[in-house]
Amino acid sequence: MNHRTTQPDARAKGAVRGGAARGAAARGPRGPRRTRRWALAGACALLAGLVLADRVAAGVAEDRMADRIAARQSALVQAPDVSIDGFPFLWNSAAGSYPEVEVEGRARTEDGLPVTASVDLREVSRTPGGYAAATARGQFTVPLDALAAKRGAGVRLTGRDGRSEITRSFMGVPLVVTAALKLTGDTVTLEPAAASLAGRPLDPANPQIAAALRAAERKIPELPLGLVPSGISVDAGAVTVHGEAREVALADAA
């Protein structure tokens, strides 16, 4: 037997076995790691299921609330969009309180004006008679085109710098009156700021102009939920009435 050949072979085999042992030790046991991965995956799946169930429950409540609001508000042309904020919804529902409820819908006034309404209810909580909101704020927007149509053919309304610009034909030439919109109680009034006829300046305090603006004053219809008019604004395409109220009683809607 060749001892010189045998010894190196033995050392090589030992090195291989040692390397394999060290590799196995470095990898460690597979069982506990696999168990932890399965546990983590299960926890993630459970959490996803709970979130989904919570959102489904919120969606059902929102749809139910929208149907009940539509049944009580005859001015609405369709059921509004309702969003109940706050997570988790089921916890809030069990507690009978919601941090915020937003309602958006389209309505039509008694004289046919289209209105886009947006109401934000804060700190909604269950009461013996239904629900109540600590505060409520609303915005009710009417297109200027619709308002102009009510003033007759040939009248055009635009908004600029927070003011309304009224244009109509007078003896075949354009009469333009710029007026600031103001809220006086529940009535929208117009205060003349500038006027021109065929491009030539006129005195905005002209009695005829003042009379025409008084005729254009408009009383705000009763707002829902007892909201009180608190301001008015105008942009390029619409005029918006703002309203607010505190301690608003709501019918059972959730």
Write the layout of secondary structure elements.
Elements: H1 3-27, H2 30-72, E1 81-85, H3 89-95, E2 97-108, E3 114-127, E4 130-143, H4 144-150, E5 156-160, E6 163-170, E7 173-184, E8 187-197, E9 200-202, H5 207-215, E10 218-219, E11 228-234, E12 238-250
Antiparallel strand pairs: 1-2, 2-3, 3-4, 4-12, 5-6, 6-7, 7-8, 8-9, 8-10, 11-12
Q: Per DSSP, what share of the residues sits in E-state strands of 2 or more residues? A: 35-45%
Return the structural class. alpha+beta
Query: Percent helix among the residues?
Result: 25-40%
| Number of DSSP E strands | 12
The biggest beta sheet is recorded as: 6 strands, antiparallel
Helix/strand order: HHEHEEEHEEEEEHEEE
Approximate shape: elongated
Distance between the termini: 95 Å
Mean pLDDT: 79
> How many helix segments?
5
Strand order of the largest sheet: 1-2-3-4-12-11
Radius of gyration: 35 Å
Sequence stretches where pLDDT stays below 50 over 5 or more residues:
1-6
Quick recap of the structure?
This protein is α+β, with helices and mostly antiparallel strands. The chain has 5 helices and 12 strands.
What report would you give on this structure?
The chain has helices spanning 3-27, 30-72, 89-95, 144-150, 207-215, and strands at 81-85, 97-108, 114-127, 130-143, 156-160, 163-170, 173-184, 187-197, 200-202, 218-219, 228-234, 238-250. The chain has 254 residues and is an alpha+beta fold. The strands form two sheets. A six-stranded antiparallel beta sheet has the order 1-2-3-4-12-11. The radius of gyration is 35 Å and the shape is elongated. The N and C termini lie far apart (95 Å). Residues 1-6 have low confidence and may be disordered.
